[in-house]
Amino acid sequence: MLPRAVLRQSRLAKQLSGVSSALRVDRLWLHNNSKVRVGNLDLPTEVTLVEVSPRDGLQNEKQRVSTATKVELVEGLVAAGLQQVEVTSFVSPVWVPQLADAAELCASIFRKKGVKYPVLVPNLKGFQRARAAAATEIAVFTAASEQFCKKNTNCSIQDSLKRIEEVIAAAKDSQMAVRGYVSCVVGCPYQGHVEPEAAAKIAGKLYEMGCYEVSMGDTIGVGTPASVAEMFKACKDVLPVGALAAHMHDTYGQAVANILTSLGMGIKVVDTAVAGLGGCPYAKGATGWRCCCCSCPSFCHGTL
Predict the structure, then answer these.
(1) Is 285 left (phi over 0), alpha (psi -120 to 50) or beta?
(2) Which residues are known to be catalytic?
(3) Helix and strand element counts for the chain (H, E)
């Protein structure tokens, strides 16, 4: 038996496939080609979704999910119209056994032309495994919290940035695009509050190294519209708003409000997970999920 959340996820992927002709899930047109004003917010004319459930969603599942089910999920999401689906992670299977089949999964999925299939890599060894599996785009990650970084990557922020620099250099040599993630951008389960400038500093470093986009993650879902706005305000001082994305967890029911705030700050890319699946194995007490890709079309079109 599959975990209930995974079964629900697979069903939703199929349901989304049936409505893809009516609604392009990957790009949400908010109001023709003009800005939409909601209260004091000027929203962008379109929003791109980056679906992370096959990697970020499944990594926290205790019960093993078969490779065949993961293939069905990835291909179902693409059939629904999503054009950027993060497939898996080449982390050590010792730390994340759920993703031990990363190479097999990459070899098994049908790659539709025009769709991006990024994979997460933790270090140079992970990059080499990803390259051997014919990955064409990768993602790297660090944190804005020193304590969380040590828990998640077994090293300091500075050391994690050195690892990332090596990976990005290798990716450039292989002509691979690189996306970046920053965890705990407003709060950490170990140190508490994270200053906006601390998150912005890390985002700026990833952009300078060569990440075309940096996704800012509220890993434990403690963000509020006010704290998210302050964080993105600080980020916009050090890198272009067009290079920023929002990754909001829904632990305390704030994901939709925080995404709306992000859109009002000029962010046009949002990470989602179908069925709201997810959680972080290294964020103590973080049982919340990033915003479901089914919720984003609803609130963007004003029907949530």
Answers:
(1) left
(2) 280
(3) 10, 12
